């Protein structure tokens, strides 16, 4: 039962969403990073004031939407330090994420007083050796670590039956547009919080769909980078072959600011980051935020495989309007294209993805638990399984709720079956998306929501989800632009051009019926 005060504050914040700063003019809620930095420079906003605003939002909204597991006890101190640096070090004024609050998915390690648990009770009280690679970069840039976002526990890899957005530490995450709607996962809290203006920007992780899907479901921008473009060091792993860390934000511009802050070589993830380092453009990614970014782009519309056949649905009518807008903005639409073997790729058992990931998870999680933590109640996947059985009433689970863990525990490294699965995925990628894009000279493919996530996942390919519309109940859906490894510059141009031409996103607002929706 919620106490009356959070409910009252919830109503006040949501009925008056554009909370003003002390001068009565600045509207904080939907500020972009560029606007935040301008306000810092003008002296109309401080990092402390911004952090206090988000802490108030979290206090009011989190009992309802459960997007945040814990706030950083040092967030205000970090904000004060950023304000002092801004005054004393002119070179840091208006730069990147300096002084900007960032919410982190709870599998991204921080060597501070916060937990890193992947939403599980099994890792509460554990201590990581040091910051993850991406957090080191955020700290160097002067960002404020606001807290840890809730997530689908163990990145949706404990059980195929667990609901999206549920974890033992925070309960069920709720879609802020309609509380009964699927928030998707596993970066559910990162998406919910940004959508509901509980954080300026956030980081999520994706192995297969975990950024693109919750971004689509919560009407925010999710950017899944090429695998290796961002370091995975210090992040609780699923599959080193597919894991990637990326921004979840309200705008494409904000996502690009965050991407610029976290990309680059990391000796702790040397093999992947060295291979991807060649893709990082000189001057960063902000240069590709072009209003006319759609002009001349060849876009492959995968209509029959992903858009479905109900032409009368709200989403398909909306997408048809978007296609016309793209044409008007100068894009060249290649209609009715198909990815060879897309149906095989989308079935993780047929493609071999499940076979490979079960073995990869056991190997990588055992390494993480045994070597990355200075203190931990569990040191292996077997220990986690035993913990879950022992505390199953607290975890609200039964045997079926860790059947993926049990399947992973039964594996024994990368054997003949796993090698065959890896070879099959490489062939499916080579003969599928890669062949299509090369033959049609495409800059990107275009699909709805997150249906293409497995195609991108098995190839280590990037994708960007941008808000595209809302159904008859007000539930959001996104549009996804995907490409080959290193194609972020073109994807950013396309996504930004689309966003600026359509301006779809609306923040969720409170209604007296007792739910949040458009």
Automatic annotation (TrEMBL):
Residues 50-450 form the Amidase domain. Keywords: Signal. Pfam families: Amidase. Residues 1-22 form the signal peptide. InterPro entries: Amidase_dom, AS_sf. It comes from the Eukaryota. SUPFAM superfamilies: Amidase signature (AS) enzymes (SSF75304). This is Amidase domain-containing protein. It comes from Acorus gramineus. The lineage of its organism: Eukaryota, Viridiplantae, Streptophyta, Embryophyta, Tracheophyta.
């Amino acid at each position: 039962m919620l106490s009356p005060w959070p409910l009252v504050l919830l109503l006040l914040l949501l009925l008056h969403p554009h909370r003003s700063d002390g001068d009565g003019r600045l509207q904080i809620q939907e500020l972009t990073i560029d606007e935040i930095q301008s306000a810092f420079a003008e002296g109309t906003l401080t990092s402390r004031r911004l952090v206090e605003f988000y802490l108030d939002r979290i206090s009011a909204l989190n009992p309802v939407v459960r997007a945040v597991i814990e706030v950083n006890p040092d967030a205000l101190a970090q904000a004060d330090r950023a304000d002092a640096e801004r005054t004393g070090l002119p070179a840091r004024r208006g730069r990147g994420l300096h002084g900007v609050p960032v919410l982190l998915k709870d599998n991204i390690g921080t060597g501070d007083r916060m937990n890193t648990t992947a939403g599980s009770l099994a890792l509460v009280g554990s201590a990581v050796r040091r910051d993850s690679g991406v957090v080191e970069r955020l700290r160097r840039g002067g960002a404020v670590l606001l807290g840890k976002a809730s997530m689908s526990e163990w990145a949706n890899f404990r059980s195929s039956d667990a609901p999206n957005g549920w974890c033992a530490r925070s309960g069920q995450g709720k879609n802020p547009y309609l509380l009964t709607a699927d928030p998707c996962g596993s970066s559910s809290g990162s998406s919910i919080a940004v959508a509901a203006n509980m954080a300026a920007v956030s980081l999520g992780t994706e192995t297969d769909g975990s950024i693109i899907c919750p971004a689509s479901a919560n009407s925010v921008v999710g950017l899944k980078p090429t695998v290796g473009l961002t370091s995975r060091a210090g992040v609780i792993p699923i599959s080193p072959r597919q894991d990637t860390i990326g921004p979840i934000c309200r705008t494409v511009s904000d996502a690009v600011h965050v991407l610029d802050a976290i990309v680059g070589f990391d000796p702790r993830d040397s093999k992947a980051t060295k291979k991807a380092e060649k893709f990082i453009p000189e001057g960063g990614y902000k240069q590709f935020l072009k209003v006319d970014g759609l002009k001349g782009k060849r876009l492959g519309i995968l209509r029959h495989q992903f858009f479905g056949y109900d032409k009368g649905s709200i989403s398909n009518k909306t997408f048809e309007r978007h296609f016309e807008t793209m044409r008007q903005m100068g894009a060249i639409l290649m209609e009715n294209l198909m990815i060879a073997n897309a149906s095989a790729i989308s079935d993780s058992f047929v493609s071999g993805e499940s076979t490979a990931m079960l073995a990869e998870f056991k190997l990588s999680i055992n390494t993480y638990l045994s070597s990355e933590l200075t203190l931990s109640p569990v040191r292996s996947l077997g220990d986690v399984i035993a913990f879950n059985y022992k505390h199953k009433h607290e975890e609200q689970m039964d045997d079926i709720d860790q059947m993926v863990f049990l399947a992973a525990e039964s594996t024994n490294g990368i054997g003949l079956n796993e090698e065959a699965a890896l070879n099959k995925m490489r062939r499916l990628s080579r003969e599928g998306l890669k062949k299509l894009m090369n033959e049609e000279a495409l800059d990107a493919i275009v699909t709805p929501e997150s249906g293409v996530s497995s195609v991108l996942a098995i190839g280590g390919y990037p994708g960007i989800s941008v808000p595209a519309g809302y159904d008859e109940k007000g539930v959001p859906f996104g549009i996804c632009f995907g490409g080959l490894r290193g194609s972020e510059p073109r994807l950013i141009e396309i996504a930004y051009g689309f966003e600026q031409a359509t301006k779809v996103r609306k923040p969720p607002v409170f209604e007296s019926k007792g739910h949040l929706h458009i």
